[in-house]
Design brief:
The complex is a heterodimer of chains A (about 250) and B (about 650). With about 250 residues, chain A is an alpha+beta fold. In chain A, helix 3 runs antiparallel to helix 5, helix 5 packs antiparallel against helix 6 and helix 5 crosses helix 8. Chain A is elongated. The chains are: A alpha+beta (about 250), B alpha+beta (about 650). The interface between A and B is large, with 81 and 84 residues. Bound molecules: flavin-adenine dinucleotide (FAD) and FE2/S2 (inorganic) cluster.
Chain lengths: ~250, ~650
């Protein structure tokens, strides 16, 4: 395949970026999108030009590193697929493809297609855990958990923290990401004791980090490579309402 | 080099208990005075950093990804073993110990393996308490599956994303410690050297991958949990960034490197498609619970569509050769059998390097929805990569480099031969001998991190007191300037070829001469070719851009430079181990039936390599392995 690429190049966070055009040839339909990028970079490097910087690691859709906006869509056109799992057979020979970084204020560009997503870590640090010291746990089968609840928690826990949800949202809302973690932990019996403070703190941190409100566009769910459902946001909103009331009466544990 | 394994006295089942009691403790009020560096945030590093933080130490944790949550452990699919015996099928810590020693082809240290089996039960408790959503039965209790090399069902799993869920569990504990201030996390930071003073590890040198800043970090001890070195083969199931740099730098500073030739080739990966390929994708071994492996019985059928090959013209070779374990034969054996079939001209797919993993019978027996429930995401992943639907047509699979059993030599306390430098997880050599059983790496990483190192590191600190080393000292300055020099060497070659180019070449040499089957002639050839390639690298490498900003090419060049030296060590080790055992198969040493033939008389030891300086042949030392509990026997899965 032969392709025209329009790629966002930006020296560093302070600099202005711009779209630059490239051409690649002899791309196999069976190669992945990132392998196509590798070949472009290999050409650039052999000419002594700087390679296009992008984040990637596992290349199997699980680490959440890759973060490309392809033809305007985070992770590209293929449903439930990360950029690293997207294969070139889904594109046409001769097609022009635009490649940009996540476009969201809370994720500033570091260089080219690489953005800073540390705000996500901060949200987790503010409550995305169950406080249990190593060695203090009881037997794993002591609390039976209905399969339905375990499955729901797993659906929520499947989030890979890539940030596509934020990138797709006009408001740069992180509700899908945050609610996935809240829903996982608040559903399980182990997570109940910290349920209220968890949701209050995580939402507060999310707001402070500059993520916008959720106004129900639903774009986040549409681009999520793990198909995390909007039900998580509904669950978080319910938990948040309950916790806020308790907070008002000063009864949050 | 002195190799004192420090195995405690006493019967095997009491060793760890007694040792824990014998280890000195640090007074709770003094703990915050100690600084500990943990390099790596995977299962081993993440759990270790979190646990040390919980104890009250001051921990600095580093990883090269942009978040601790993205460490390569995230990619583990199939599951984690534990001797819980929830299935009441005869499991016990002793059986897990036995299976692991046998599975490792009698090349691991009994005492360490027994401890691993003992604490395996605590791991599941810990993870469930953290909110890890393991699969459950309708009654609400935890579900299990079986994995290769075991006849009991002891593997816990979270769909096909067990590593992700365990890592997110460790990451959540780590995040809690970050929020309370005991752990400071430094992502996008790569360790490029370890610093020693008076023979002890006192810190590391890092490069900030965003700003390029080279920095010294001092601490009372250093923990390396930097994962395995499978990427020395370029194509592997590992993440692209996995590397040998941290452990290799420690080796160069005096840490013995044990058994580098023990590499695991996983039998069920998606076959390579072409030159563009950057990595190989694993299809979890759990698939072998329900999938049947076969190739055509006759060469002339190899190009046919699988549905056109009649049942009696198929060779279910694992079931044929290993009737009692069948499709669940251990990884080394399954991989080698696949290679044999392909060497015999019966491999399938366009390259002839592939075998079928067929679910037709399981779908007939259990229904498609049951199979979808068990493996849906794996089938989806397979379709996404190959464009084929495995519910309708058998998967094509082929072995690929997956895991490395070798690593830094450690004693019972997980300390390397450098005083104060510990190695955990895949980075050390300790528990899997010459072959790792499925679902045991996650167990080992978490055992090392949650339940072993917090004790042994405390013991070390209590013995040595607060060292409070000075990051401005000569030792640090010297190490910093060496790191800077190495970087400027790479930047200034200004040749024509990318680091990737050299990595691909190295991978080809390694796979050809030191892959699934090795022999003296080939290994010698590799030992000839690698230094030549290294020479080309230093003549023709191109790293555009600058070293004081984010530069992916520079990162890769540094890692490839280390692999180009390390690959040689790996081949040397493979050459010197004149026997076949586990994942190390020397063609000269096999039984009449083509099985691996160990030489217990001469090789029942761990080979430990000591760096002797640039262009010098490293020295080979031995830790003799004693088998007091498990009788040395021919490993049979028939
Ligand atoms: C595809 C796949 C599937 C697997 N499935 C299973 C399974 O089902 N069951 C099982 O038991 N095992 C499985 N394994 C093996 C298992 O996942 C690994 O052995 C294990 O997770 C390794 O954990 P670790 O903590 O030692 O290292 P890793 O998770 O690799 O972590 C290494 C850490 O070190 C950091 N690091 C590395 N070098 C540097 C440096 N120079 N400077 C700074 N930081 C550095 C990295 O950033 C990372 O944080 C699988 C492996 C693969 C590849
Ligand atoms: S590179 Fe890991 S999810 Fe894409």
């Amino acid at each position: 395949m032969k392709l025209k690429l329009r790629i966002w190049r930006q020296e560093s966070s302070g600099c202005k970026g711009r779209m630059v055009e490239y051409e690649v040839d002899n791309i196999s339909e069976n190669s992945s999108f990132l392998e196509m990028m590798d070949l472009l970079n290999e050409d650039l490097v052999s000419e002594g030009k700087e390679a296009v910087a992008f984040d990637h690691d596992c290349r199997e859709g699980i680490c959440g590193s890759c973060s490309l906006t392809i033809n305007g869509i985070p992770h590209g056109p293929q449903k439930a697929t990360t950029a690293c799992q997207l294969h070139m057979r889904h594109f046409d020979d001769g097609q022009t493809i635009s490649i940009e970084p996540w476009n969201a204020r809370p994720f500033p560009v570091i260089k080219d297609l690489v953005v800073n997503r540390s705000a996500f870590d901060k949200i987790i640090q503010s409550g995305g855990y169950i406080s249990v010291r190593a060695g203090s746990a009881q037997d794993a089968n002591a609390i039976p958990i209905p399969k339905q609840d375990a499955d729901f928690a797993m659906d929520a826990a499947a989030c890979i923290g890539c940030g596509a949800c934020v990138a797709a949202c006009k408001n740069a809302s992180a509700m899908l990401f945050t609610s996935a973690k809240v829903s996982q932990l608040n559903t399980l019996p182990q997570g109940k004791p910290e349920k209220d403070r968890r949701v209050l703190n995580m939402v507060k941190t999310m707001d402070q980090a500059g993520f916008g409100n959720c106004t129900n566009y639903g774009e986040c769910e549409a681009v999520c490579p793990k198909e995390i459902s909007l039900d998580m946001i509904a669950k978080m909103n319910r938990d948040y309402a309950v916790a806020s009331v308790k907070n008002f009466f000063g009864t949050v544990a | 080099m002195k190799l004192d394994s420090k195995i405690p006295d006493g019967p095997i089942s009491d060793k760890w208990k007694n040792h824990k009691f014998a280890l000195k403790l640090v007074n709770p009020a003094n703990k915050r005075k100690y600084n500990i560096i943990v390099v790596g945030s995977g299962l081993a590093g993440g759990s270790c950093a979190a646990s040390l933080g919980e104890l009250g130490y001051n921990v600095q944790c580093f990883c090269y990804q942009d978040s601790a949550r993205r460490a390569h452990s995230i990619a583990a699919q199939g599951g984690i073993n534990s001797a819980k015996n929830y299935q009441n099928d005869g499991d016990s810590a002793y059986r897990l110990f036995y299976d692991t020693v046998k599975g490792g082809d009698f090349r691991s240290r009994e005492a360490n393996v027994h401890r691993l089996a003992e604490v395996s039960e605590n791991i599941i408790d810990q993870c469930v308490a953290q909110g890890v959503p393991f699969a459950r039965e309708y009654g609400g209790l935890l579900a299990n599956r079986s994995f290769g090399g075991a006849q009991v069902s002891r593997t816990f799993y979270a769909r096909g994303q067990t590593g992700q869920q365990l890592l997110l569990g460790a990451y959540s504990s780590l995040s809690k410690q970050v929020s309370v201030g005991t752990v400071k996390m430094y992502p996008r930071t790569e360790m490029l050297d370890i610093v020693k003073e008076n023979g002890s590890a006192v810190g590391i040198i890092t490069r900030d991958l965003v700003t390029g800043e080279i920095k010294s970090w001092a601490a009372d001890c250093v923990v390396l949990a930097t994962g395995g070195y499978g990427t020395v083969f370029n194509l592997s199931t590992n993440a692209i960034g996995c590397n040998v740099t941290a452990t290799f730098k420690a080796y160069k500073k005096g840490a013995g490197f044990a058994n580098p030739c023990y590499t695991q080739i996983h039998p069920t990966c998606i076959p390579q498609e072409g030159e563009h390929q950057s990595k190989l994708t694993l299809m979890s071994e759990s698939l072998r619970n329900d999938g049947r492996v076969w190739v055509p019985k006759f060469k002339e059928d190899a190009d046919k569509h699988p549905s056109e090959i009649a049942e009696d013209r198929r060779d279910y070779y694992l079931e044929r050769k290993y009737p009692s374990f069948g499709n669940l034969a251990p990884r080394d054996i399954s991989s080698r059998s696949a290679k044999e079939a392909c060497d015999d001209g019966r491999g399938i797919g366009t390259t002839g390097l592939g075998v079928y993993l067929d679910f037709e019978d399981a779908i007939k027996r259990l229904g498609e929805s049951a199979i979808r429930e068990r493996y849906g995401n794996l089938f989806d992943m397979y379709e996404c990569i190959t464009g084929e639907n495995a519910y309708q047509r058998p998967m094509r699979i082929y072995p690929a480099v997956h895991y490395t059993m070798g690593g830094l030599w450690v004693d019972y306390n997980l300390m390397t031969t450098i005083d104060g430098c510990f190695a955990l997880g895949e980075a050390n050599f300790s528990d899997h001998g010459a072959n790792r059983l499925g679902a045991s790496a996650l167990m080992q990483g978490l055992s090392d991190g949650y339940f072993v190192s917090p004790y042994t590191i405390s013991g070390y600190l209590a013995d040595n007191g607060v060292k409070d080393p000075d990051p401005e000292s000569d030792a640090f300055k010297q190490a910093e300037s060496e790191v800077k020099e190495r970087i400027s060497t790479l930047m200034s070659i200004k040749g024509k070829k990318s680091a990737r180019h050299f990595h691909v070449q190295l991978g080809k040499i390694m796979w050809e001469y030191c892959g699934m089957a090795r022999n003296e002639k080939g290994l010698k050839k590799a030992l000839d070719l690698i230094p030549q390639l290294r020479e080309d690298f230093y003549k023709d490498l191109s790293v555009p851009g600058s070293s004081d900003s984010l530069n992916n090419e520079l990162e890769r060049a540094g890692r490839v430079a280390d692999h180009l030296e390390f690959g040689e060590l790996l081949c040397r080790d493979a050459l010197e181990r004149r026997e076949s055992c586990g994942g190390h198969f020397r063609e000269e040493y096999q039984t009449d039936e083509g099985e691996a033939q160990r030489d217990d008389e001469n090789f029942a030891h761990a080979a430990v390599w000591e760096y002797k300086g640039k262009d010098q042949v490293p020295a080979r030392h031995q830790e003799e392995l004693q088998f007091d509990n498990v009788k040395l026997a021919v490993r049979s899965y028939k």
